[in-house]
Prior knowledge:
It is a single chain. By secondary structure, this protein is α/β, with parallel strands linked by helices. It is built from four helices and six strands. It has helices spanning 3-58, 104-114, 116-124, 144-151, and strands at 62-72, 75-84, 89-100, 131-140, 154-157, 161-164. Strands 1-2-3-4-5-6 form a six-stranded mixed beta sheet. The relative contact order is 0.12.
Amino acid sequence: MAEEPTAALPQQxxxxxxxxxxxxxxxxxxxxxVIRMEQRWGLDHENMAADLMPRFLxxxxxQVQRIAMVPLEGEVDLVLEIEETEGRWMTWVxxxxxxxxxxxxxxxxxxxxxxxxxxxWLQREGFPEPVIPAVFGLAIYAGAEAMAQKLGVGLYEARxxxxxxxxxxxxxxxxxxxxxxxx
Length: 183
């Protein structure tokens, strides 16, 4: 009797190996599907921000003259060239998120605008100083407004528009004074 289960063992191992291979392939396909959905949904957020931010800024007397979508490490930021009604020009860098609930989006946009390579790119592309940080979210959770105010970063929500105005320097060409980030 003990020989029968042992004799069937190689066949069972082969069946298990085949099932494991099928599961591995299914997991790979699911992973690809999730990545495609994240990419599609992520860009939908950026497209929504690109559509809404000019409206929100126009209500404050700011005209968007140019929009660029700039990818970095799987995230896409919006870069907006803005003209004020007085003729002053500036650049806004907008971190776009589906949900804004903690400090990280604010820290990320501050890190981005302080990055020498990114500043060099802005200059090569002709984006003017000063550079203003902002975060755009489809949904904003408790604590986000206080964090935006504390760090001087603009905060915009798809439904409400401007939630917190960013710090904008008064002197032409000056960048806003920004606190150090914890990143």
